[in-house]
Amino acid sequence: QEQLLRRRNSRQNWDRFIPNRSAMDFGYAHYMLTERNRGNENNLISRASEAYRKRLAEALGMNRTRILAFKDRPSTVAGNDSSSSSSSTTHRVKPTKPHRKIPQTSERILDAPDILHDYYLNVLDWGSSNLLSISLGSTVYLWNASDGSTSELVTVDEECGPVTSLRWAPDGRNIAVGLNNSEVQLWDSAGGGGRLLRTLRGGHVSRVGSLDWNGHILTTGGMEGRIV
């Protein structure tokens, strides 16, 4: 008995093996521990269906790692079929996306003297007809991005100006102009000359700094905090 105890004590005491969870396939392990045994017990999985399952797993490139993995190993596809192995490897390769090239210099610089440097104003807007509208003080200018031409739309009176907001309608032809005296003017830009369609009054008591279109509905926002 003393000799038996001596032999047991002479052995090295090893700790438990802790598997590497990052190298484990929990989905495949769950199937192997539950569904596969249940299927074999009920004798519902035939040899043909089992072969089909293996071929399908090879084609989809399923990770055939062990249930308990104690070290990292490169993922390989089970089977000796070179055609299925190459096809599964090709399936896992993701196509590279082309890098977007952002220009480091501006394409064109437009002079904008007398522009109002106010964060709460919207004095620049690009319409769907490729016309850029900008207000410089009390004057609204239009710049055609197609041919580079510039035209004056309107110059408001001093007691009404300056222009505090601009917004093109979805049709790219009509434009709403918000003024410092709380008025909103609707202009038709056809022909480059400009034609006043309507003047909206009474909606605000201070400057109109925000405009937006939703179809044929125009929404305005004033400095006093009211939205009409």
From TrEMBL:
Any single Pfam family the record assigns to this protein: ANAPC4_WD40
GO biological process, one term: positive regulation of anaphase-promoting complex-dependent catabolic process
GO cellular component, one term: anaphase-promoting complex
Stretches with biased composition (Basic residues): 91-102
GO molecular function, one term: anaphase-promoting complex binding
Keyword Cell membrane in record: no
Anaphase-promoting complex subunit 4-like WD40 domain location: 157-192
WD repeats: 156-188
Entry-linked SUPFAM superfamilies: WD40 repeat-like (SSF50978)
SMART domains from the UniProt entry: WD40
Keyword annotations of the record: Cell cycle, Cell division, Mitosis, Repeat, WD repeat
Region (Disordered): 71-106
Keyword set includes Repressor: no
Known role: Component of the anaphase promoting complex/cyclosome (APC/C), a cell cycle-regulated E3 ubiquitin-protein ligase complex that controls progression through mitosis and the G1 phase of the cell cycle.
Protein name in UniProt: Cell division control 20
Organism name: Genlisea aurea
